[in-house]
Amino acid sequence: MHEGAIAEGILSIALDYLHRNKGAVIDQVGLKLGELSGVEEYALRTAWLVVTRGTAAENSALVINRIPLVGRCHNCEREVPIGKKMQESAGLIELEYGPRLMPCSFVCPFCGEPLEVISGREMQVDYLDIE
């Protein structure tokens, strides 16, 4: 479970910021997590509860902002969502048998050229609220 190591890293950043700014308590930690970051949110929240125990962040809220996977076509210059949203708009998900996710395509649905991923890989501390 690499989420434990990620939680420890986030806590280290938060405590360093707290001490540099002469704070006493961390109230909230905001994160940006892209769909392609490989982080399982439930596991990260569980790890956060464990690693913050007995620290200035013990009762802090972990606020996660999920960033969608988006690609840009260098040929037609369109930006398009990659994954389920693209598949829904193209009618690739068969709803009569229930939702089914088709394999992701990193090809522009408009011109067929490859897409460059421009968002969705983020994994960063966005903000900290301290007292």
Walkthrough of the structure:
This protein has 131 residues and is an alpha+beta fold. The protein is 27% helix and 27% strand. It is built from 3 helices and 6 strands, in the order H-E-H-E-E-E-H-E-E. It has helices spanning 3-20, 41-51, 84-89; strands at residues 26-34, 61-67, 70-73, 79-81, 115-119, 123-130. A 3-stranded mixed beta sheet has the order 2-1-6, covered by helices on one side. Strands 4-3-5 form a 3-stranded antiparallel beta sheet. Helix 2 links the parallel strand 1 (26-34) and strand 2. The longest helix is centred in the first third of the chain and has 18 residues, at 3-20. The chain is elongated and about 55 Å long.
Spans of at least 5 consecutive residues with low confidence: 91-102
The helicity comes to 25-40%
Strand content: 25-35%
Q: What class do helices, strands and sheet pairing give?
A: alpha+beta
Task: Output the number of helix runs.
Answer: 3
Spatial extent as radius of gyration: 19 Å
**What is the H/E order?**
HEHEEEHEE
Give the biggest sheet. Answer: 3 strands, mixed
Strand order of the largest sheet: 2-1-6
Count of beta strands: 6
Report a brief summary of the structure.
This protein has 131 residues and is α+β, with helices and mostly antiparallel strands.
